[in-house]
Amino acid sequence: MEEEIRNDIKWAQINRDVLHSMASPRRSYWALIGLCLTVVAIGVYAEIHQYHTGMGEARLNRPQMWGFYIANFIFWVGVSHAGTLLSAALFLTNTEWRRPVYRSAEAMTSVALLTAAIFPVIHLGRVWDFYWVLPYPNERGLWPNFRSPLLWDMVAIFTYLNSSMLFLYYGMIPDLAISRDNASGWRRRLYGWMALGWVGTDRQWRNFRKGYLLLACFLLPLAVSVHSIVASDFAMSIMPGWHVTSLPPYFVAGALYSGCAAIITLFIILRYTFRYEEYLTLPILDKLCKLTFAIAMIWVYLNLIEFSSAWYGHDMFEKEVLIEKATGPYAAIWWTMIILGIGLPFSLLIKWVRRNMRVLIFISMLINITMWLERWMIVSPTLARNHEPYSWGYHWPGWVELSITFASFAWFTMLFLLFVKIFPSISMYEVKEMLYHRRHVSDRLLRESGSDRPLTVEK
Amino acid sequence: MTIKNMIENWAQFRKSGQVGDEYYDHADYRWGMVIDLDTCIGCNACVTACYAENNLPVVGKERFGRGLGMHWIRIERYWQTGEEGEKKTRYPEQGAQYIPMMCQQCEQAPCEPVCPVAATYHTPDGLNAQVYNRCIGSRYCSNNCPYKVRYFNFYSYSETWASPLEQQLNPDISVRDKGVMEKCTFCVQRLRRAKNDAKNENRLVEDGEVQTACQQSCPTQAIVFGNLADADSRVSRMWKKHNMAYGHREDDKQQKTERGYRVLEELNTEPSVIYLERIRDENI
Amino acid sequence: MSFDPVNRRTFLKLMGVSGSGLFLTLQGCGNASLEEGRETVMSYIDPEDFVIPGEEVWYATTCHQCPAACGLHARVREGRVRKLEGNPASPINHGRLCAMGQAGLQLHYHPDRIPQPLARIDNRLQPVSWDQAKTRLHKILAKAAENPQRFALLSGEVGGHLEKLMDALVQTIGGPSRYVYEPLSQKIWHSATQSALGITSPRLQLAQAQMVLSFGADFLGPWQSAVHFAAEYGRFRTEPRGSLIQVEPRMSLTGANADWWLPIRPQTEAWLALGLAHLLASENKAIALPDAISQALAQYDIDSVSKITDLPTDSIRRLASALRTRTPSLILAGGPADGQVDGSQMVLASWLLNYLLGNLDKTITHAGDSPFAELETRIGSTAALQKLSEHMPALDTLFIYQSNPVYSAPDFLQLAAGLEKVRNTVVFASTLDETAELADLVIPLRSSLEEWGSRVPAYSPDQGLLQLQQPVMQALYPQHVASGDLLLQLLTQLDKAYQQWPDFYAYVRTDLMKYREQARPDKQPNPWKLPAVMTPPTYKPVMLEQAFSTDQLDEAFWEHTVAAGLLQLPTQQRSLRMQPQVPTIKPVTADQNFPFTLIPFPQLGLYDGRHANLSWLQEMPDQITTIVWDSWAEIHPETAARLKVKTGDIVEIRSTHGSIKVKIFEFNGIHPEAVAIPMGQGHSRGRYAAGVGVNPVKILAPVFERDTGELALYATRVQINPTREQDSLVKLAGSDSQHKRRLVRTINIKAPDFSHPEGSAS
């Protein structure tokens, strides 16, 4: 079997490589940060304009009350899912190859959620009153409406954001201690404070592992529930094409699908910008691709379920929406989404593709665009073809929506890049564990086969 | 704010405004409407009356074209287009099909449960109320409204009342600013006034004492509005005559002369507005 | 509330006194930020009825948005009129009000209203003071009086006491020339009806008819009296349900509500009417027609009528048999049917049909002889404008009162050019429209909600009706002189006899007092809101003593009449007599270069264009196409296919007298040989109207009705030339089809003895 990480890599080397990434990335890193800042600035300008002029600037209308912002929201919540899947689910199943990847995946989760959480807020007609959704104490005894899926959403997203950030931070503690020991200045103070006095005693390790397991167990069902709740924004409505029971699993599958693709993209970018060729290796990428394919197939299956239940359900409205998607003004986008979404994962079956990073980064980004379109195609066609023929109308984005959408991508990238610059983006201790574990196994195998090579353990 | 308060509130949220709910038991009023499509001529008098009564802004051609028109009541006009099995003729020999569409004041309103801040709720007299001050503009209610009769202030329209046009504004209701959802209220300010007047005189509002703006303007008197809780009111008698009641289904019809129906009845929204079927004489 | 004003007034005065006491106290303490005389507070001292905060007051008055003259109840809050409703006591509109009436508010509060008089100085209209304007006006008038032949007055339909004063002015000057111009004139109908029945305006009782056959008369739309006929229609459909058949080249609002709508080749309606008359006369021997008529009718046999009208013989037979079986019926003609060279003959043919079907005295009755002979509204005409344009080169002075002929007249009259040559053009207008722009002196008018007035509606089910108009609030521009007062001032200049009336209010009041004895007792004004009465500040008993006696009966009569908003006198109804006349119609010779007939149709909304500057009506979707803020040309999809154009394509519509560019709208409800463009758009003035759409009236050819000389509005032949341009039309309808939704459900009635299941409305 091909090894994910070279066996002979020194532990000190691991520390050096990872800590080095926090010090001096390639110049392209700063170029990217600069680009992101510019795009975010344009987005902020667009938002200020929209705030000042009114939501009409988002080219929304009646019946298209929701548009790009909600599509973005679902998309970013979706992206956040793969991180949890990679770290928690694969941790629980003892999958070894997750170890070098999971830190960046978890970071992606938190950053994606931070991006997602913006959208329900800027989508509001009265942004300045967004906190009314919170059940905070007030002298009028006013409560939010607990029956509204939007409220569940708010609760779910906040829980998920908190838990995933906690998970990220918790799993980082031993690495923060390493960073503390190797840093100076503000970094030393920051890491020292965040490492919570970690020295690596047995007791600390024992408690740490218990806690980590507990968090992983908690987070996995939470992740599934979060996107189910986001799906219930739609499924709980009475709109044709939304009011579908298969929507929650469909959302979860779609989320994991786009999340995996996002991880592949970030994987390749990280590997290049931080010179992580030793850790983010091709065999891991290969496995990621296979995982993506498997999840994509679930998504395809759920798509088919949705279409067939619309088709055979004989609900006139439901059927109309399906026909509208396939033949209406959105048909080009919808077919692009369907064809790419179903076709692209099959390219991952080819080994050459899985090993070719230029092709892969292209495919993974294409998958993400496809999945973004899928979100748009969930929101708009249903509203376009609602129960009331007189109100039928379409939504095409204006510059405000487009700017804010692009800004969200830039914002996400920027936050992620900042994270990997400040914190160790590869789990040093887990990679060491991985090597240690593997060497033990290989040594045992060697001994059993009668070899006299000595045990090699280095400090 | 106490936990008790919260639990009580919670209990109220669980209620879904069921037909026959005790929430309404003690209400003296339950406003309802009948619109006769055989006498509605689609002349738009009601639409303009609503603009005048409810401080509706004129949005202009460009915004109207984008679907931002703010007409709480609109006359929908359909043709027999020959699509999907309808009879196709060279000319529309049976004329147009008009239907005034406004908030149906549903008993099981899809807009109510989805509002995150409970800005839209059901009043005990059967109105689907919208609290402008509470609305944060999530627009979920409009998405979930099958009749698409909720109108969102995508812009601040106050400048559309070029001076001195603003002096016409009805002082009984507010001018809504950007970011707020609004819709037909059954002219709640008129209902309010009538109820207060009646209360001062220690009586109930009489049938015909209060009219909605659309009803009052309607040249053919196609719109009948009144109190369904009063069995003798004109609107009650018409509901009865056409075998309409909350929970009524199309299958419950007994005879052909019962022309009452609800729009999109299959969605079980239980509107308080019923329509009477249009008639065309094919015997000429 | 006006009926016991004393008690409440006294109470409020007391309140005011204590209030001002409190106010002084506060000022003493330095708490009040009000500086003396620099700010206005709502004073409770002797408040007027209409400014009590939080209290709504209702005043009865009359709508001036179209010639129908519906009764109004105006809702006033805090001294501002907020809403107009129909006056339930008015037999015209029974408490109902159309969209145009509702929009009267916007005219009143219009931002384009002229705040002060304008005079042409250095060839530019410049604001001048009222004093200057009046001096100038009196000077012009003095000059005009010297040479009466060179003076003329043009107005729309005015009616009532204002009409009386206007006539008096023209007579006092001595000129022959008072022109009453109404773009949507009913002159043809009135004159033909006069010749058939001996009265101009019989009562049309739709509600009594089992069937209504209308040749183009859009009675639910802007034909004669929209709200009145819509109310009649409401009853026509309910007790028991009558059937409506509409025959017209382009579907009107009435056509859209017909049980059966028949597209007829434009300009051939009279053939169908006479063909039906022939069918009915030859089969029904009960009503004998003079031989001359029977012989004349013989040429309208079903086959040639079918060929000319482009209606299948089967349809014509079905029509005839429906008319035979469903009596009483009502046959109407109007719009595109009477706006033809043979328009009068068409109306006569409709009366002939009514006569043959025995509808007289059943669905068509005598409406009584008007007791207000001298107050009757003069029916406007388009012929008047034609005459004026001929007269214009000989004019020195032209007064134009509330009329916008420069916009609404066809180009061939070259009115604007003529107007420029008149030395003194005085325009009385509320906004600076196309006509006012060319004036030498513009006198701003008060809105109809700020003036006293009266009106005898042109169509009234009861000729004993006088609609009263009272100001419902103080003038927005208090300096503006009310039309009546201004006319009185001008008259006083010429004839001192008019000095006896201090103002127009006194004039109207004195005049109406003479009807006191005949007035019908108690007309209950409004069952749920008692209207109030506006008393002008000029009304001081001392002053009035000289003018008329003010005994208490007078006072009560007056208060009651003004509160009711109308005065009804008993009239004698006679039975109708009709002398059938020999129909003479000539076929229209079609010019192959101009294959289409232009139908410039008015809508219930912008009307003839006078409401184009009201944003509510601009944003009100057209009832048929649901288009807003635009002009369009309706053509049948077959025509569109033949011309290779589609909805949204811009075409040039060319007549012999001009061309316009307009967007195509494909529409099934129009005859393939017709092209219909709505009236009312194409203004160059007005913040909401300018630059929107085109004015189809501009390209009308000089074709006139034979008997009356009226402009034949629907007789212009045009060609359609595609251009390569395109534009989008903004319309409300997202879909024309219900897509199986069954939102509007229709019962198709087949049983012959079907009666309306609703029975009487309650």
Q: What would the keywords be for this entry?
A:
heterotrimer; B: 284 residues; alpha+beta; Alpha-Beta Plaits; four-stranded mixed sheet; two-stranded antiparallel sheet; 8 helices; 15% strand; globular; C: 762 residues; alpha/beta; Phosphorylase Kinase, domain 1; Rossmann fold; 5 domains; seven-stranded mixed sheet; six-stranded mixed sheet; 22 helices; disordered N terminus; disordered C terminus
Description:
The complex is a heterotrimer of chains A (459), B (284) and C (762). By secondary structure, chain A is mainly α. Chain A is built from 16 helices and no strands. Chain A has helices at residues 11-21, 27-53, 68-92, 102-116, 118-122, 149-182, 185-194, 202-235, 247-273, 282-312, 316-327, 331-347, 351-355, 357-384, 399-422, 428-448. The longest helix of chain A is centred in the middle third of the chain and has 34 residues, at 149-182. Chain A is globular, with a radius of gyration of 24 Å. Chain A starts with 10 loop residues before the first helix and ends in an 11-residue tail after the last helix. Chain B is globular, with a radius of gyration of 20 Å. With 284 residues, chain B is an alpha+beta fold. The mean pLDDT of chain B is 87. Chain B is 21% helix and 15% strand. Chain C is an alpha/beta fold and 762 residues long. In chain C, β6 (151-155), α5 and β7 (178-180) form a beta-alpha-beta unit. The longest helix of chain C is centred in the first third of the chain and has 25 residues, at 5-29. The interface between B and C is large, with 84 and 102 residues. β11 (278-281) of chain B pairs parallel with β26 (746-749) of chain C.
Shape verdict of chain C: globular
Q: Helix share of residues of chain A? A: over 70%
> What number of structural domains do the residues of chain A give?
1
**What is the name of the CATH architecture of the largest domain in chain C?**
2-Layer Sandwich
Please give the count of helices of chain C: 22
Q: Give the helix level of chain C as a range of percent.
A: 25-40%
Number of domains of chain C: 5
Major sheet summary line of chain A: none
Main interface: chain pair and counts: B-C, 84 and 102 residues
CATH class of the largest domain in chain C: Alpha Beta
Enumerate how many helices of chain A there are, as a single number. 16
